Amino acid sequence: MDKPVYNHAIVRSFVAWSVVWGLVAVLVGVIVSFQMVLPELNFPPYLTFGRLRPIHTNAGIYGWGVGTIFAMFLYIVQRLCRVPLWSDKLATFQLWFFNITIAASAVTLLLGYTTSKEYHEMEWPIDVMVVILWVAFSINIIMTIVKRKEEQMYISLWYMLASIVGVAILYLVNSAAVPVSLFKSYSAFAGTNDANVQWWFGHNAVAMALTAPPLAMFYYFLPKSTGVPIYSHRLSIISFWSLIFMYLWTGAHHLLWTPVPDWIQTLAMAFSVMLIAPSWGSVFNGYLSMNGQWHQMRENYLVKFLILGITFYGLQTLQGPMQAIRSFSAFIHYTDWIPGHIHMGTLGWVSLIAFAGIYYLLPRIYGREVYSIPLANLHFWLVLIGQLIYSVSLWIAGVQQAGMWHSMENDGSLTYSFMETMIEMYPYWWARAVGGVIYLLGLGVFIYNLILTVRKGKPSDDAVGQTA
């Protein structure tokens, strides 16, 4: 049989650019963490927390996260379908337009142009660019799957298709707006409807951009890295359909105790709790795939990234439903517990899987073995320790913060003022900044290892069937 010729040049480019934007996201994140404890580091009007924070989140989600999705999907779809990409030219357009869009987003946010919607701050011209970019990507992936030579559709392809369709619907609906000038628009929705649509988008953007794609990667790279098949393809399919159905109803758990109708809040709360089952279905599938293979946690650096990643996913999907319960939400919402929860997902779950995927790809897209396994292990421990310091310190901070906010005297007055509560947060905020620096050091080790791999890595036999 003729061996397909895969386009790995485009994968190399997306890997490189996603790492660049990931570095920007973490570097800006460290800066804003220090701005929280050292206000003198805010330099108006542009280099302030208010301007830099959305650049941090959007560079992380769309630059690093979506950039990695592009790289991994373009690689995986060719291998699982056993055909080249449907259109190399469309993929090249996607690469250039991706970087133009991310750069335009960063510049406009720095200048203060924002819709003020969480995870959807970019104004309407950027929205148009995002839609063009996603349509180009979607067409290429879908058409490659349509013309596949492998009849069986492995679970990773299901998650890829769900992400493509889900993001498209979510982004189009939430970006509906009335432009009033080049960089100003007003939402097509108003009041509680606007809030409900926003968090339907916000939480399901996490589902379709930061959950389904890493699961597609996990299900592909774990068997490839360990050399053993996934424990149960049937369990993966059941988990997939359950996850996709349940996630769509959970967005309003961000709006508990608000004017949003109680029945919508209750519906979101119920589906959020049920979401534990399909999420842990994938966690158990990963763990059970390691039966008789746990020694690889010591011997195979890729397995450490993948298993710790799926573990953080499991913890994330316990914390999330817990926060969606009214009584717990009333206590913990708006505290530092929330960013601790979010960053366990982004730094622990999503990024560890992405790191593993990039390490796995290196010999196959560059034709060179990873330069240093010890450096890869050092990278693992630095990002793990940095993420744990960050998340755990904020979980503790959030519980203390909530306790102080809710503490009342016998006459009904508050025991602590807002300023007293904030002062108590400073040690935890310092810990967060230190954790961020450690994570940044780990990212630096990762990038250094990538550069040396490309320049000095030993030739690999894995790089076959590819275009330059």
Q: What does the model show?
A:
The structure is a single chain. With 468 residues, the protein is mainly α. The protein has a single domain, classed as Up-down Bundle (Cytochrome C Oxidase, Chain A). It is built from 16 helices and four strands. The protein has a two-stranded parallel sheet with strand order 1-4. A two-stranded antiparallel sheet has the order 2-3. Strand 2 and strand 3 form a beta hairpin. Helix 1 (9-37) runs antiparallel to helix 16 (418-456) and helix 5 (155-174) packs antiparallel against helix 6. The longest helix has 39 residues, at 418-456. The chain is globular, with a radius of gyration of 22 Å. It starts with 5 loop residues before the first strand and ends with a strand. The model has no long low-confidence stretch (mean pLDDT 95).
Brief synopsis:
Keywords: Electron transport, Heme, Iron, Membrane, Metal-binding, Respiratory chain, Transmembrane, Transmembrane helix, Transport. With 468 residues, the protein is mainly alpha-helical. It has helices spanning 9-37, 49-81, 88-110, 124-146, 155-174, 191-210, 212-226, 233-247, 262-274, 276-289, 296-299, 301-323, 326-332, 337-366, 373-406, 418-456, and strands spanning 6-7, 177-181, 184-187, 466-467.
